Amino acid sequence: METKLVNLKINGIPVTVPEGTTILQAARQAHVEIPTLCFLKDVNRMGSCRMCVVEATGARGLVAACVYPVAEGMEVRTNTDKCRQSRKMTLELILSKHKKKCLSCERNHSCELQRLSLGYSVDEDRFKGEDFVLPLDCSTPYLIRDNDKCINCMRCVAACRKQGINAIGPIGRGFNLHIGCAFDRALAESPCVGCGQCVVDCPVGALYEQSNIDDVWKALSDTSKKVVFITAPSVRATLGEAFDMPIGTNVEGKMVAAIRRFNPAAVFNMDVTADLTIMEEASELINRIKTNKPMPMFTSCCPAWVKFVEQTFPELIPNLSTCKSPQQMFGALLKSYWCEKNGIDPKSLYVVSVIPCTAKKYERGREEMLGDVDAAITTRELARMIKTAGIKFTELPDEEFDNPFSTATGAGAIFGATGGVMEAALRTAAHMMDGNFEVLDFFAVRGSNPIKEATYLVAGHTIRVAVASGLDNARKICKSILSGEKQYDFVEIMSCPGGCVNGGGQPTLPDSVRNSVELKEARAKALYACDNGNSYRRSADSPTMDIIYNDYLGFPNSHKAHEILHTSYKDKRTI
Amino acid sequence: MEHHSAFHGTAEQEAKLRAVIEESRSVPGCLMHILQEAQGIYGYLPIEVQKIVAEGLDISLSEVYGVVTFYSQFSLNPKGKHRISICLGTACYVKGSDKILEELEKQLNIKCGECTPDGLFSIDSCRCVGACGLAPVMMIDDEVYGKLKPDMVKGILEKYKEEK
Q1: How far apart are CA A145 and CA A180, in angstroms?
Q2: C-alpha span between A443 and A423 (Å, rounded)
């Protein structure tokens, strides 16, 4: 059936769009930007904040462009006195209740409310609202909720709902409305898994990570400490955004150069332990296939997913791979192998991981693995450190990671995108099972579709795989496995939609960008380019793996490898 | 806010609630109906009851709590043997019903919306009972008390304490 087209004018500019298009979408075709606040593409669309109000013929009063559909012959005016006055008043009312501590705010200079307030020349003290003091929620090791800065836009609630977690929601009504967990309990007592999607979707400074920047600066200035940085695969694909570089720019060389300006003992490539994870996980998979141990096997590199299984589907804990994540493997390897080899006291080693994730801060502190990694900082925190240190990021030369943990394969790099771990594992597992298996590209598991399935025939075994990103999709997969509706052998889950490139620790971008760019795809492209350009594409082919196994671990899943690189999980059922 | 009184739900009450959930869970928007029924069964909606509802509908506790706190008809606290309802409608308010409420809270040492630890009294506010000529007005169970002054509160409460 052909979609009916509608002709209308936006500020006098004629546009033709499919029926059902909103004024906001149509305006983009006329190259007109309508301000938004509660609206966020793919996440929240409820027309409640009234920032996007416009005049439209046929409508009574101002209408919310984000939800109002276009009509034939409609004339829309987006920049009239009436629109501007209404938006200004809306902003002033929001500000009457907003804690205006902008100077020290996490989102100073990247706040949507600040950006709009400047544009509409608001008087932030025009209305003196009742002081609404709510306690800061610092109960988790990964994020902080400051309700006094919250503007009740509901974007965090929508993000949490999209994940199927619903840890937070609106409480009360009218002036007392606020966002919180059931019974106003602390976030740590809720089903929150720490994915941080609420943080990247918050337009203001009401949600931000538990910062470890000060801990890292302190360690760097402590002469008794040897500080080592390890950077996760996806950080190279997003860090540039914090320095106004185009989305999807691979800034690996500049990132290494910038960190090196902090004078750490070394900067290592976490793609190396992504490869190591694959060596261990692929061997574990083959072992499970042969011994028919709990199948399917689930990937375990995403800490929010692991926490989700422990809390929601503890009966599936035996299905989680026992492999630690690349972050934890690296920390453990540095404090054992690297320290022994270089005569360093592990107590003096301070491992800083740079990750795209808020949940990694929680993973670092898990009792099973405490001590592997000393601090985990997000891409955003690294960007802030670089700015504070006065490093001109864009002018830096490209530098390389330090040896012996510099060379990694393309399989390690694609860990940062949904389907990447699956593809990386398949490359190595298939080759381990059948030495003649030469396929390196597993296209069916790529792309940002929420659930992907494929079947491969390797050495007489049929391997049924599934890849999902976003926890609501993970829940669907878990339920279909438990009900017996689906049978898989290997399942990759990433909590954040699109995988780590869209992680909760990644740079926040202005709404005007978020609402017009396919962010996940643009960022993932940089990682697949990295993979394509790499001469090693199978983890097992990495010369660094040869060194680590020959020198120290022996072989994948050896006793020593188990001791250092594997972990266990616990039933953490909550409601 | 979280209630602190102990929960005394019986197995019969729970079975009744589970039956209601089972009966209506496939109906879109059934949460409101189930909560109304639950409040009918228990008299209020403490965390224990909300958990049964959340579990039964496979939704999060936060969603249930959001709805419970949105509608003033739902109560998080048990109601007393004697339910005091103080009118804060316009006529009563201008005649000083806020002072009556203050006195009630002081005498019973609880806040509006709460129940005394002995379960004898609970205080709620309402909007107009249709007796504006008697403002300020409060109701205790089905009894209407009009033309109130703060110093009358203590004596009225005594009457109910004695009949215990």
Answers
A1: 9
A2: 8
Active site residue A360: yes
pTM here is 0.91
Among the listed residues A500, A520, A530, A539, the single catalytic one is: A500
Catalytic residue list contains A321? yes
Q: Which of residues 153-192 of A touch B (CB under 8 A)?
A: 165-173, 181-185, 190-191
Kindly state whether residues B133 and B91 are assigned to the same domain. yes
Cβ distance B47 to A183 less than 8 Å, yes or no, reads yes
> Angle at the Cα of A519 (from A530 to A238), degrees rounded to 5?
50
CA gyration radius, chain B:
18
pLDDT in tens, A391-421: 999 999 999 999 999 999 999 999 999 999 9
| Whether residue B50 is found in the same domain as residue B118 | no
Spot the catalytic one: A83, A150, A301, A478.
A301
Nearest partner of A38 among A64, A73, A61, A10, judged by Cα: A64
Binned at pLDDT 50, 70 and 90, residue B4 comes out as low
Crossing angle of helices B31-42 and B61-70, rounded to 10°: 80
Query: What is the Cα–Cα distance from B21 to B37, expressed in whole angstroms?
Result: 9
Cite the DSSP H helix spans in A378-518.
Answer: 379-388, 410-413, 420-433, 471-482, 511-514
Q: Which of B33, B49, B70 is the last residue of a domain?
A: B70
In Å, what is the CA distance from A259 to each residue of A147, A209, A375, A394, A544?
A: 34, 20, 15, 13, 22
B66-97 pLDDT, tens per residue? 999 999 889 998 889 999 999 999 999 999 99
User: Do B112 and B59 belong together in one domain?
Assistant: no
Q: How far apart are CA A191 and CA A385, in angstroms?
A: 32
* For helices A252-260 and A379-388, angle between their N-to-C axes, nearest 10 degrees: 50
B60–A182 CB contact, under 8 Å: yes
Instruction: Report the domain count for chain B.
Output: 2
pLDDT single digits (tens) A540-575: 999 999 999 999 999 999 999 999 999 999 999 875
Q: Which of A117, A234, A283, A321 is catalytic?
A: A321
Three-state DSSP at A177 gives: coil
Which residues form the domain of B153? 82-162
